[in-house]
Design goal:
- This protein starts with a strand and ends in a 13-residue tail after the last strand.
- Among the domains are: 1-24 and 420-566, YVTN repeat-like/Quinoprotein amine dehydrogenase (Methylamine Dehydrogenase, Chain H, 7 Propeller); 29-220, Lipocalin.
- A hairpin with a 2-residue loop joins strand 2 (8-13) and strand 3 (16-22).
- Helices cover 3% and strands 48% of the residues.
- The protein is built from 1 helix and 45 strands.
- The strands form 11 sheets. A 6-stranded antiparallel beta sheet has the order 1-2-3-45-44-43, with no helix packed on it. Strands 16-17-18-19-22-23 form a 6-stranded antiparallel beta sheet, with no helix packed on it. Strands 28, 32, 33, 34, 35 and 36 form a 6-stranded mixed beta sheet that branches.
- It is mostly beta strands and 566 residues long.
Length: 566
């Protein structure tokens, strides 16, 4: 059910209640637009878009089984999303049928080495059914109706090996059916697509996004409209404010009443926070991978770890880093910057004291890659990492702890236990997010991960495990079909977000499922990318589509907190 309050909505579903949405806006469900079509007579808008990839230079553990492309159908009046579906490929073109409740959709992309792949989708606006009608994969660059029975398409050639000018030309063909509302899957044969060889402009991602953004800004009646993108980290501050970083935003702060307090734009955006003691400022790890061309020279911005004021977002200073890094922090304020550069001779990990003063301490941890070694652990009393063999760092990984303040002044690296807790099975495990729990010396580690397989992530090969920090013994395991994007919790409940859009609450003591549900906003599925537990019964969830969900959750007895009133 939906409860309205003070101009907003409380979305209640199962054991989680979305009390407030920060950063909400029209067309959020589809991400960055690539194609837009309006049917004034029906009062509908079709939008194709891209939610982006679920990896950055410091972490790629959430990307498996992820499809970023979306098709959304919206009302022109209130811009409400009627329904949204995944697309295997980027969306190039839409065409509303002149009489039937049908939309033709052309999708596709070049695979980078040989084939032009894609689909011709026929969407039924009444049943919300999507049918892929070409037999085999073929990139469809343009669609348009010539009559009730006839659809004109421009398709790319099958590959770029047997066709000259394959990247600048395509086949203009006409496909005819007596009833386009009843077309069988795969019933359009490849021979029907062999039309006239014509020059055509291939869609450029940036140009398509600019045109789509301009179109949606006009529909929204806001010339400043632009898509929000992945919220990579979200944190709650003691004064009730919400701190977030996302694609295109170095950092932003939201007031307790839901208003945006400040925002620091950035071409690429922040990926991790480390909030400093006193909560007056925070370190922000900023992505720097985008390549620009200056003449014939490839240029990237220098790596950046910035210290920003939490009062106004002003960048106070920055740490000198030679390569992009992943941040690891300890509860007492120690910070580690591990190089994410894939190198046989990686830069040692830099350790920064809580005060940020004194000589920089460095410790060698070996090679890093964003799948094997990503290991962001919250609420930890130790600096925890994954470390593999010296020459093959992806093999035989161990969980290690770094003590930056040893009596002899040199930091030590202690091997705690192998990443794989089952020595009897020859498995290659990837890292993932986690938390440290427990009291005094009785501390445990709860972390996510996945079993690597050459065929990709297989069903049941993603996991969450609770382990003793003493010997690494597994106290319980929970398996899943999709990788975890984020994890947080306490000694009572562990909350795990998955890239399938599911949120699962596990009992910390034994891993039993307290509740699980698909995350839904406004009747449409959303995917959680970041998550933090700020207090008992409250979660902040950053989504792939750029929104921040302020949620309440049922306690261990199943009681829902009272709705928030601002």
């Amino acid at each position: 059910m939906i409860l309205h309050y003070l101009g907003g909505s409380i979305h209640m579903s199962g054991s989680l209640t979305i009390r407030r949405i920060l950063g909400d806006r029209p067309f959020a469900e589809i991400g960055t637009p690539s194609a837009v079509a309006v049917d004034e007579e029906r009062g509908l808008v079709a939008v194709g878009g891209n939610l982006g990839y679920l990896q950055w230079s410091g972490c790629g553990t959430a990307k498996d089984r992820w499809r970023p492309y979306r098709v959304g159908i919206y009302d022109t009046g209130d811009l409400r999303c009627r329904w949204v579906l995944e697309s295997r490929w980027p969306v190039h073109s839409f065409a509303f049928h002149p009489t039937l409740p049908v939309v033709a959709v052309g999708t596709g992309a070049y695979d980078g080495g040989y084939f032009f792949e894609g689909e011709l989708l026929i969407l039924d606006l009444e049943s919300e059914r999507s049918t892929s009608v070409i037999h085999g994969a073929r990139e469809v660059l343009h669609v348009g109706w010539e009559s009730k029975r006839t659809l004109r398409v421009v398709v790319a050639p099958p590959d770029d090996c047997d066709y000259d000018e394959a990247h600048t030309h395509g086949f203009a063909a006409v496909v005819e059916r007596s009833d386009w509302s009843d077309v069988a899957p795969g019933s359009v044969r490849q021979e029907e697509l062999s039309g006239q060889w014509v020059e055509c402009e291939r869609p450029r991602m940036e140009a398509a996004a600019d045109r789509g953004t301009e179109s949606l800004a006009g529909l929204a009646g806001n010339p400043w409209w632009e898509p929000r993108r992945q919220v990579w980290d979200v944190q709650g501050l003691r004064d009730g404010r919400v701190l977030a970083c996302s694609d295109g935003v170095l950092a932003e702060a939201w007031l307790p009443d839901g208003r945006l307090e400040w925002r620091v734009p950035d071409e690429e955006g922040g990926r991790q926070f480390a909030i400093r003691a006193g909560q007056r400022d925070a370190w922000v790890n900023v992505e720097r991978r985008r390549v620009r061309w200056v003449g014939r020279e490839r240029v990237t911005e220098p790596p950046l770890v910035a210290r920003v004021s939490l009062e106004d977002g002003k960048v106070l200073d920055s740490l000198r880093v030679d390569t992009s890094v992943a941040l690891t922090s300890r509860d007492d304020g120690w910070l580690a910057l591990r190089s994410t550069a894939w190198d046989r001779h990686p830069e040692p990990t830099a350790l920064i004291s809580p005060a940020g003063e004194g000589p920089e301490v460095r410790v060698p941890l070996g090679g890093f890659d964003l799948f094997n070694h990503a290991f962001p652990i919250r609420h930890s009393r130790q600096l925890l990492f994954l470390q593999g063999k010296e020459r093959e760092p992806w093999r035989d990984k161990w969980v290690v702890a770094v003590d930056p303040a040893c009596p002899d002044g040199e930091p030590s690296v202690r091997q705690l236990f192998p990443l794989d807790w089952d020595a009897k099975r020859a498995r290659h495990l990837f890292g993932g997010p986690g938390i440290e729990i427990g009291h005094a010396e009785n501390r445990d580690l709860v972390h996510a991960g996945a079993v690597h397989d050459g065929a990709g992530l297989l069903p049941g090969n993603a996991f969450v495990v609770r382990r003793s920090l003493g010997d690494g013994a597994a106290r319980w395991t929970f398996t899943a079909d999709f990788p975890a994007t984020a994890l947080d919790g306490d000694d009572d409940t562990v909350y795990v977000a998955f890239n399938s859009g599911e949120l699962v609450a596990l009992r910390t003591s034994d891993g039993a499922v307290r509740w699980r549900q698909q995350l839904v906003v406004g009747g449409q599925p959303v995917v959680p990318l970041s998550l933090t537990r700020t207090e008992a019964g409250r979660l902040l969830i950053g989504t792939v589509d750029g929104r921040i969900l302020d949620c309440s959750v049922a306690d261990s007895a199943g009681h829902q907190p009272s709705p928030m009133v601002r």
